[in-house]
Design a protein that fits this description.
single chain, alpha+beta, Aminopeptidase, seven-stranded mixed β-sheet, about 30% helix, globular, binds coenzyme A
């Protein structure tokens, strides 16, 4: 896979893949999801990228450049020099290691290029697949934030994980 900026041609793919309750359940992606949502998402993401407020990437297949999911570096806290990683992947592409690989690239970008000190990854306590991704990346569980996110129509406990620049060892991560 490759990470690349979002393009107009991604509208249809995003609308198709994001219209998925399994994504809605654990993210801020609305459901039902239509082409207008996708257009707005791309436009907003491009604006934020331009202002360097957020970095939103398409996870795209090498063979045909087709978008299969989204990975982003967001919620920057400039004062404390940290940001958060977020992601979703289209259902047909799951369990192939794409998101761990995408996260590794984004975390490298955050530490090496943006010189962040810390990267956060949160997931709902029930989100077993995301927890697996996070563990593969070697992020440390720092706490359970009780009912701290309203996602998928309910308040959910959130597992708060962190990676510090000084402990990030991408070569030791097999993804
Ligand atoms: C979470 C998500 C991004 C994972 O991406 P991915 O590229 O499929 O990640 P991986 O390839 O590492 O596969 C996930 C692992 O979780 C496992 N898994 C999936 N569902 C599971 C479940 N309900 N219980 C236990 N394990 C589960 C898979 O079998 C796989 O295991 P493996 O590493 O032993 O092969 C993807 O499932 C997704 O988009 N989910 C919906 C949106 C979402 O939850 N986003 C994250 C919000 S924090």
């Amino acid at each position: 896979m490759t990470l690349r900026p979002l393009m107009k041609k991604d509208e249809k793919r995003i609308a198709e893949l994001a219209h998925d309750k399994s994504i809605y359940r654990f993210t801020r992606v609305p459901y039902p999801y239509n082409i207008e949502h996708a257009k707005k998402f791309i436009a907003d993401s491009q604006k934020k990228m331009k202002k360097k407020e957020e970095y939103v990437f398409a996870i795209a297949l090498n063979e045909n450049d087709e978008l299969i999911g989204i990975a982003s570096l967001m919620r920057f806290n400039k004062m404390d020099n940290r940001a958060e990683v977020g992601y979703w992947l289209g259902k047909p592409y799951r369990s192939k290691g794409y998101v761990p690989e995408a996260c590794k690239l984004i975390i490298n970008f955050g530490f090496n290029k943006l010189k962040l000190n810390k990267i956060i990854i949160e997931c709902a306590k029930e989100n077993k697949a995301s927890k697996k991704v996070i563990d593969k990346l070697g992020a440390k569980l720092e706490g359970v934030l009780r009912e701290s996110s309203f996602v998928g129509g309910k308040y959910r406990d959130s597992l708060y994980h962190g990676i510090l620049r000084k402990e990030w060892k991408p070569n030791k991560i097999e993804v």
